[in-house]
């Protein structure tokens, strides 16, 4: 069973990166793919956390006035993880953020996609969308290579770009729509996501002002 699961995972990983449509359709139908998608999201969170904790954010403040230099130094200090405890917290926060983002993104895509798909009959469920979105993140696992000088950041960047392509394929498969409509669904869901963040930040700012 374990070897079968590993073989399925490996085959699907390659198929997703190669934009193999039958692989995406199999992921949508297979309940096991939800757990596999969850693992990909967790690994992605770890990869992002590792890149964050191993990257130097030092900025040359030469030529800046004292106030600006102090602000820049405080900002870079916030992203400098020196102790093991800080690094563990950064990794944990990165994983949690990835999981929350995965759930919210999947829910928004399900909400928007079902309304734009024009497909009669069965609707795509949130769980099916989570499977496809999670697997669509697969190319971003290249972030594990980010700490490698020169080549690593380039591969991580390419992985991020390709993840957009696999994400479009995931949406296209989920709702059986054209590439253009899949891109439109992704853009609209992203705009809704940004608007929600803006509302939350705005309300939080109002709350802070009211308290102070």
How many separate domains make up the residues? 1
Strand content: under 5%
The chain-level mean pLDDT equals 83
Helix content: over 70%
| Secondary structure category | mainly alpha
State the shape: globular
Topology, number of strands: 0
How would you spell out the order of helices and strands?
HHHHHHHH
Summed up, the helix count is 8
Residue stretches low in confidence (pLDDT < 50, at least 5 long) are: none
Task: Note the gap between the termini.
Answer: 59 Å
Summarize the main sheet. none
- What radius of gyration results from the CA coordinates? 20 Å
In short:
With 212 residues, this protein is an all-alpha fold. The protein has one domain (2-211). The protein is built from 8 helices and no strands.
Give a topology summary.
Elements: H1 2-17, H2 21-29, H3 32-54, H4 66-78, H5 84-116, H6 126-136, H7 151-175, H8 179-211
Attribute tags:
mainly alpha; globular
Give a written overview of the molecule.
The structure is a single chain. The protein is mainly alpha-helical. It has one domain. It is 77% helix and 0% strand. The N and C termini lie far apart (59 Å).
């Amino acid at each position: 069973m374990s070897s079968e699961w590993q073989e399925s995972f490996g085959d699907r990983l390659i198929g997703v990166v190669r934009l193999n449509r039958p692989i995406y359709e199999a992921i949508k139908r297979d309940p096991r793919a939800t757990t596999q998608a969850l693992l990909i999201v967790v690994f992605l969170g770890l990869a992002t956390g590792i890149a964050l904790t191993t990257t130097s954010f030092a900025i040359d403040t030469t030529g800046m006035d004292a106030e600006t230099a102090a602000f820049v130094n405080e900002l870079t200090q916030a992203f400098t993880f020196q102790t093991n405890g800080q690094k563990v917290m950064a990794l944990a926060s990165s994983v949690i953020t990835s999981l929350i983002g995965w759930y919210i993104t999947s829910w928004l895509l399900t909400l928007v996609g079902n309304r734009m798909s024009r497909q009669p009959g069965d609707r795509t469920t949130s769980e099916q969308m989570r499977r496809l979105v999670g697997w669509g993140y697969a190319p971003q696992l290249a972030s594990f290579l980010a700490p490698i000088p020169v080549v690593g950041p380039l591969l991580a960047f390419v992985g991020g770009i390709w993840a957009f392509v696999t994400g479009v394929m995931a949406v296209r498969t989920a709702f059986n729509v054209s590439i253009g409509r899949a891109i439109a669904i992704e853009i609209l869901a992203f705009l809704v996501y940004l608007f929600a963040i803006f509302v939350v930040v705005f309300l939080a700012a109002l709350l802070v002002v009211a308290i102070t």
